[in-house]
Amino acid sequence: MKAKQVSVFLENKSGRLNEVAQILGESDINISAFTVADTSDFGVLRLIVSDPEKACEVLKAKHFSVRTTDVVLVKSNNRPGALSQMLKILNAEGVFIEYLYAFSMNEDAAVIVIRPTNIERCVEKLHKHKNELLDND
């Protein structure tokens, strides 16, 4: 099962991150998770949101550079070693990960956002090992 991640390209300028958060909030789009990668000139804000298509639409209307990317959302136990166990399985199955980030759902569960080079292979191998995959909802 694939999910959609929204990537927003931002100038490294004060207030730009807040602008995105405000636009999405005013559009009734919930942000479940995000990460920011930056260079000296720009940043890439990656978001998991309740409505990726609408998020792209409203951000583009405000002149942000936006695109969607397929990612995999994996529910994991929120305990020491859980991430390592999942990564060990993916490595043994030959799944290469470009990047990942995670967020806690509660004290017992977390969600890991994975951007693999091969989505279908990653999904197949996670299913094979009985991992629970989620969607944007």
Automatic annotation (TrEMBL):
SUPFAM superfamilies hit by this protein: ACT-like
Q: Report the Pfam families cross-referenced here.
A: ACT_8 (PF19571)
Checking PROSITE patterns in the record gives: ACT
What domain of life does the native source organism fall in? Bacteria
Domain ACT, by residue range, is: 5-79
Q: Which PANTHER family match?
A: ACETOLACTATE SYNTHASE, SMALL SUBUNIT (PTHR40099)
Q: What is this protein called?
A: Uncharacterized conserved protein, contains tandem ACT domains
Supply the source organism for this entry.
Mariniphaga anaerophila
Lineage at the top is: Bacteria, Pseudomonadati, Bacteroidota, Bacteroidia, Marinilabiliales
